[in-house]
Amino acid sequence: MVGSLFIVWLFLTTVPNAVASVSELPSTSEECLACHNDPDDLLQSAHKELACAKCHSDIPEGPHTERPQPVRCGACHLTPHNEIPKSAHAKLGGSGDSATCIACHGSHRIRKIAADADIICASCHGRQATQMAAGIHAGRREERTRNLPTCVTCHTAHAVRSRRDPASPTHRSHIHETCARCHADPKVIAQERIARPRVVALFEQSIHGQAILQKGNLAAATCTDCHGAHEIRRGADPASTIFKKNVATTCSHCHGDEAGQFRDSVHGEAVSRGIFAAPTCTDCHGEHGITATRAPGSRVAPMTVSKTCAACHEAARVIEEFGLAPRRAGTFFESFHGLAVRGGSPVVANCASCHGTHNIQPSSDPRSTVNPMNLSRTCGQCHRGAGMQLANTRIHVAPGFGEHPWVTLVRRIYLVLIVVVIGGMSLHNGLDFLAHLRERWLPERQEEEQSRVPPEVGRRLFERLTLNERIQHFTLFATFTILVITGFALKFPESWWARPLVWIEGWYAVRAWLHRIAGVLMMGAAVYHLVYLFGTQRGRTQFRLMEPGWRDVNEAWEMVTFNLGLRPHRPRFHHFSYVEKLEYWAVIWGTFVMAGTGCIMWLQTVVLKRWPLLVIDLATVIHYYEAWLATLAVLVWHFYHVIFRPDIYPMSLAWLTGTVTGEQMAKDHAAELDEVLAVESAPSPLSADEEITEPRVG
Predict the structure, then answer these.
(1) What separation, in Å, do the N-terminal and C-terminal C-alpha atoms of the chain show?
(2) How far apart are alpha carbons 223 and 208 in whole angstroms?
(3) Would you tell me which of 72, 201, 256, 501 could form a disulfide with 511, CB atoms 3.0–4.6 Å apart?
(4) More confident position, 127 or 110
């Protein structure tokens, strides 16, 4: 009951007071509109739900004679009210508290920024609004999309700052971040089907982006320099700054000299005539991810520019449609220059070195750097004094495509030689391998081999190589291995084993200098070997034993017939068998050929001053195929007889210890073993008394 009395008392005291206070203000805007007849403004206003007195709170009741005080928008819109004084629009519309607000939003027909930003801004910025309306960002206004930018998307709504203000989102240092709000937003990219989702990331990694972000160089190009600020159009639009016909003009704002050269080039003239299959700036340098010309990842870097050129000059459609010379890129990559480029050399000549960069002209044009009248000067940049020899020679050649008939003939001779020699070696070793297996399988053969030499002789060690000879052999082995790896790395740079050398070659010419140093060391070892052969008693003896003769032919025939099972016993070889003699003289021949052709290729400028390019071409083909012949011979012939032969597997240690066992001597050098044992068992020329007092030690 007490509670009920309290509620009644509260109702009787508060309701009359509330009614009295409300009656002091107009309950609706109808009373105001009786005099202030602007219903259309209110109906279209963002504040149409508010009563007039909500903003004009100083008018206590109906008709009034005093002028209302200026509306204070900040009473409700506190954040914008605090931002406006710092913005570029701080002084718009006068000095009143809300004068700036009214200047943009109006007084009674209040317009929302979200819906009417372009209309609001157009009242002062008409030219920019016209440009915006013609651009791609306004091209789909009629569609129901929420991702198209308006003025406030880039400039903000109330904290608008001058584009010269470093804090402004349209300042040159922040433009890419402003564009990234849409062009790096996965949601916007998916909804708007933006075809290039990584443009902002690529720009930040580019030479332009790095200049702005890391070096603070605000003169570097940013998004608006290429695409425009307000009138941004599609690349397919002829009025666009990035339309293919206009790209050079856009780039010329910063790169005037290069753009001028390009316009006069064969590519620039083709683009100006509407042949859009011809390249322009962005086709070679890239679009958003442009890097420095010397940067490793650049499309125009010395090691990659030739691949960029090949994108068009190896395209069948382009070659066929425009009648371009075929196989230009392919023949380059097979040439010495191309192989060096593929091998990682940053200093060797590439396409741009000869044809130019922006000033490329057809070879028939007198201005072209590859015009016959200019070739001697162009080639002379690297080959001083050799330009005249190169000027009269076909450059873009390949096997079966424009090369000299002599080069083709030598290549074919070597191919036949490799097949015959390596095939014969493989057949010989295959038969020998089967013969050794046959000896292991037949017990009587094993007993026969074991009884061939006495046990005490079989365990003895006999000298095959002196320390001097072992050092010579190791030098040959080391230099030959380095030459093979570094040489074939030039020809096959994409191979997994060549990749470390190719990677290093981009900074230092390691592969090239290793190859040359190893070649010089091998030639030095060859000279020392000749001195050893004819300057020492041991060397002269070894040389006489190494001389080939008819006995070697007979022993080779006997060995083949034994391997075929047509003879019961192996031939009895002396100090050197035909196997070792063939290998030794092959090394002598190969060293002479490889050293000669290698020096011609190394000293090509000196050679070209006296002889035509054909000499170098012949040296190149001989050097390459002789390398194949030597490498395969070592793998097939030498490695079999010192590693893979069943009776000495896993390896003959003579090249390390210099000795072999008597058992191995009985098998491989039986005739020499007989001589050694005969000499040891022969009577001593000393007297009987001397023999008693000085017994011979064996």
Answers:
(1) 141
(2) 10
(3) 501
(4) 127
Percentage of residues in the chain with pLDDT exceeding 70? 88
DSSP 94: -
212 vs 220: CA distance, rounded Å: 6
Coil, helix or strand at residue 462:
strand
Identify the residue with better confidence: 668 or 99.
668
3-state secondary structure 202-237: HHHHCHHHHHHHCCCCCCCCCHHHHHCCCCCCCCCC
Q: Which domains does the chain have, with CATH numbers?
A: 1-68 (no CATH), 440-681 (1.20.950.20)
pLDDT at 379: 87
Query: CB pairs under 8 A, 24+ apart, for 232-239?
Result: 232/135, 232/136, 232/137, 233/134, 233/135, 233/136, 234/136
Rounded Cα distance between 50 and 563, Å, is 113
Please state the separation of Cα 621 from the chain's center in Å: 28
Q: Single out the residue of 350, 345, 586, 692 nearest to residue 489, CA to CA.
A: 345
User: 140-197: per-residue pLDDT in tens?
Assistant: 545 555 678 888 889 988 888 888 999 999 999 999 999 999 999 999 999 888 889 9
Say what the pLDDT of residue 448 is. 57
Task: Outline where 125-222 has alpha helix (H).
Answer: 126-134, 151-155, 175-183, 186-192, 199-205, 207-213
What is the SS3 assignment for 684? coil
